[in-house]
Specification:
This protein is of the alpha+beta class. Helices cover about 45% and strands about 30% of the residues. Strands 1, 2, 3, 4, 5, 6 and 7 form a seven-stranded antiparallel beta sheet that branches. Helix 1 packs across helix 2 and helix 4 runs antiparallel to helix 5. The N and C termini lie close together (about 10 Å).
């Protein structure tokens, strides 16, 4: 069974998401409106949704007061590259992971928190997990020690042994921890 995608925020196709609601709203407030008026209302609806969900994400990361790890793939014009970094706030994560991106999609699948974001060179795909205090110490020991392991090996170990699922949809929206499509 496939895990159900629980969308937190997605601006990849805002026209499909909002145009009917925008037209309904404009019909109630005006007799004459243009396609451009509809588009402007769609953009305003998306902006309202982003502000709401961004605030929820900021509060979620802030209240946990944990270190987080983001891992995934960055796509550039000259290839795809693995990426991983620690962060402590939503804003810090967005500045790094979402740099130069115009489109964002946050979603939860059975507690896993994912971010897909696109820019003019390609699409980046990430997973976000909470790092346990033991994981933070593990990384710091590697970072400041004379350890022969590669950074990739260290992050792999942190993901395997020293991290936990955020369960965003469960904790913020009250969804079941596990939910399957179909």
């Amino acid at each position: 069974m496939k895990a159900k995608e629980r969308i937190i925020y997605d601006n990849y196709n805002i026209w499909d998401l909002y145009h009917e609601d925008a037209e309904d709203y404009l019909c109630r407030v005006s007799e004459n409106f243009s396609e451009n008026d509809v588009w402007e209302e769609v953009v305003a609806m998306d902006q309202d949704n982003w502000e709401t969900e961004k605030e929820r994400l900021e509060i979620f990361f802030q209240e946990k007061s944990e270190k987080w790890v983001l891992t995934g793939v960055v796509e550039l014009w000259h290839g795809k590259y693995r990426s991983a970094f620690f962060f402590e706030s939503f804003d810090e994560m967005m500045k790094k992971a979402g740099k130069d991106c115009d489109y964002f999609r946050f979603y939860d699948e059975n507690g896993h928190l994912y971010l897909t974001c696109s820019h003019h060179e390609g699409t980046n795909c990430y997973e976000i997990k909470a790092v346990t205090p033991e994981g933070v110490r593990y990384f710091e020991n590697w970072e400041y020690g004379n350890d022969k392991r590669t950074e990739r090996q260290v992050y792999r170990q942190i993901l395997k042994r020293y991290s936990r699922l955020p369960n965003f949809a469960h904790e913020v929206y009250g969804c079941s921890k596990r939910e399957y499509a179909g």
